[in-house]
Specification:
Length: about 150
């Protein structure tokens, strides 16, 4: 089944992708590889979903925020390549959690992102991954994730 069909079957509607907030490209495609800049979670009104984990956000809220990041990453990727059916393999994700000192559940939080990729792309959504804690992230967002994806030829 295609990734686009999976989105439909799962009832997932991707949010609108927004312009970058700095001097960078959201997605760069080079030699069949799409490199996605770090994406952060957003509230329904488009404002950053912020807060340190677990102080301001519970682990469960952070997992949901990581899934939210995945939706924005998929939207940016679709805008750049035309169709998510062009994704051959999620190669790598790098997940960062805005975490309080002593927090150790970074992998659980980033599973919110990774689980969405597996839902949409099947086993092709399971790539290599790092999940780390940061003392802060831009705009105090709870989670940020970068992704590298191998594309099929058109």
């Amino acid at each position: 089944m295609s990734a686009e069909q999976r989105l439909t079957d799962l009832g997932i509607v991707l949010p609108a992708s927004s312009a970058p907030v700095g001097s960078y490209a959201k997605v760069v495609v080079l030699n069949g590889i799409a490199y996605l800049s770090g994406q952060g979670p957003r509230n329904p009104d488009g404002t950053p979903l912020s807060g340190q984990v677990p102080g301001d956000r519970s682990v469960e809220e952070a997992v949901t925020a990581a899934r939210n990041v995945g939706l924005y990453a998929l939207a940016a990727l679709r805008d750049a390549i035309g169709s998510l059916d062009r994704v051959e393999q999620v190669v790598r994700t790098f997940g960062m959690v805005n975490s309080a000192p002593g927090f150790t559940q970074h992998p659980k939080v980033i599973d919110g992102f990774s689980d969405l990729m597996i839902e949409v792309f099947g086993e092709a959504g399971r790539g290599a991954r790092s999940a780390v804690g940061m003392s802060s992230l831009p705009s105090n967002i709870s989670v940020e994730v970068e992704m590298t994806v191998k594309l099929r030829d058109r």
